[in-house]
Design brief:
It is a single chain. The chain is of the alpha+beta class. The mean pLDDT is 97. It has one domain: 3-Layer(aba) Sandwich (Aminopeptidase). α1 runs antiparallel to α2. It has 4 helices and 8 strands; from the N terminus they run βααβββαβαβββ. Strands 1, 2, 3, 4, 5, 6, 7 and 8 form an 8-stranded mixed β-sheet that branches. It binds coenzyme A (COA). The site of coenzyme A has 18 residues, from α1, β4, α3 and α4. InterPro entries: Acyl_CoA_acyltransferase, GNAT_dom.
Length: 166
Amino acid sequence: MTILVRTETPDDHDAIRSVNKAAFGVSVEADLVDRLRADGDLLLSLVAEGENGIVGYCGFSRLIIDANDKHANGVSLGPVAVLPREQKHGVGQKMVREGVARLKAMGETLIIVLGEPAYYSRFGFDVAAASAFRTPYDGPYLQALRLSDDAPAGGDVRYAAAFAGL
Ligand SMILES: CC(C)(COP(=O)(O)OP(=O)(O)OC[C@H]1O[C@@H](n2cnc3c(N)ncnc32)[C@H](O)[C@@H]1OP(=O)(O)O)[C@@H](O)C(=O)NCCC(=O)NCCS
C-alpha cells in the first residue's frame, strides 16, 4: 500500500480519534490529542493516509525546559498510533522520520519521547541523552533526540497542560 504522510486537516479529526482508539484499545490517547489540539498545543500533527483512508497518527507538542532561570523550547513526541491491521509495515517509522525531519527544518533542537527504546532508538532517541532532564515520567522509557548542538542539555521539563489529565 502506498502511504502518504501529511499534516492533519479538520476533516481528519474523527479518523485520528479512531486510529488512536484502535491502536491503544482505550480512549486516553484520543482524548489527549483532542485536548492538545483544543489548547493550541499541537506543534505538528501528522497522519498516514493509505488508499482507504487514515491508517496512522503521530503528534508532537511543545515542551518548556527550565534550567538556570532560563526557559528553552523542546518538543514531545506522542502519541504514535497505527491501525492494528496496518502495523509492522513501516507506517510508524515513516511518520516519525517525517516528523523529525520537519521539526529539524523548523529549527527545533530537542525531542523527548516516552516509549520503548527498542523502537525509538532506530530514530536516534537515546535514554542517556534524557538522563539530565527531570520529567513526571523519568525512568527507563524516557529518551531524547538532540537535533542540534545548541539543544538544551538538561533541566526541568514542563509538558503541555493536557498531559496533566492523564
Ligand atoms: C508502536 C507503533 C506506532 C509502531 O508502528 P508500526 O507501523 O507498527 O511500526 P513499524 O512498521 O514502523 O516498525 C516495525 C518495527 O517496530 C517494532 N515495534 C513495534 N512496536 C513496538 C513496541 N511497542 N516495542 C518495541 N518494538 C516495537 C517491530 O517489532 C518492528 O521491528 P523490526 O523493524 O526490528 O522488525 C504501532 O505498533 C502501534 O500503534 N502500537 C500501538 C500503540 C503504541 O504502543 N504506540 C506507541 C506508544 S506512543
